[in-house]
Amino acid sequence: MAWWKLIVLPAIAALGLWGVGLVAILDSSTIPVPMDAILAVYIWNNKSHFVICCLLAAVGSAIGGLLPYGLGRAGGELFLLKRINRVRYEKLRLRFEKQEFLAVMIPSMLPPPAPWKLFVFGAGVFEMRVLPFMLAVIAGRMVRWLILSALVLELGPGAADLVAHHALWLVAVIGLLAVIGFTWWWMRKKRSGKLLED
């Protein structure tokens, strides 16, 4: 983390707000970085532009995610089966068949240690179209980072450490909210379908 603060952050800061998008591309494609901590600094230093910071980071994350997505699309089924067992693979496949947008959006909302790249790779393996894939990543990341923004604006840039420290709890809470939201949406959809049949 020290070399990020001493070398990389000053270099990124020279790019202005565009720097946060570049960091998000690196984080999602190849080099894992403390994205929440970096974004928290950007938000704190650009309080009136926090939505733009979140949007640039979300778009950067979607662009960077095209690399693992493309690898999955290029024939990652065998690679995926080496990393996870057949039962988990089938669960992942069914999730994409039933609701591919949510299968990418929900993991995109969750902070580490959620296995985001597994779902991105899976989106490629199961041939999700590029535009819905990118929109799902952007939507999920926007939810995550707008929540982070609210914490940073209230508590200061140290809020990212708070998020990291309580990541497992946050994953559980956001996951539970996502399940409740999906269940509510699904029930409404079924009810409206029955009303149309009647």
Explain what this protein looks like in three dimensions.
With 198 residues, the chain is mostly helical. The chain has one domain (2-165). The protein is 82% helix and 0% strand. The chain is built from eleven helices and no strands. The chain has helices at 2-13, 18-29, 35-45, 50-64, 66-73, 77-83, 86-109, 116-125, 130-155, 159-165, 167-197. Helix 2 (18-29) packs antiparallel against helix 3, helix 3 (35-45) packs antiparallel against helix 4 (50-64) and helix 3 (35-45) runs antiparallel to helix 10. The longest helix has 31 residues, at 167-197.
Describe this structure in a few short sentences.
With 198 residues, the chain is mostly helical.
Quick tags:
198 residues; mainly alpha; 11 helices; globular
Structural class: mainly alpha
Helix content: over 70%
Shape, per Cα inertia axes: globular
Could you list the spans in which at least 5 consecutive residues all have pLDDT below 50? none
Number of strands: 0
Whole-angstrom Rg: 18 Å
User: What does the largest sheet look like?
Assistant: none
Count up the helices: 11
Tally of individual domains: 1
**SSE string, helices as H and strands as E:** HHHHHHHHHHH
Fraction of residues in β-strands: under 5%
Q: How confident is the prediction overall: mean pLDDT?
A: 80
Span of the ends, CA to CA:
61 Å
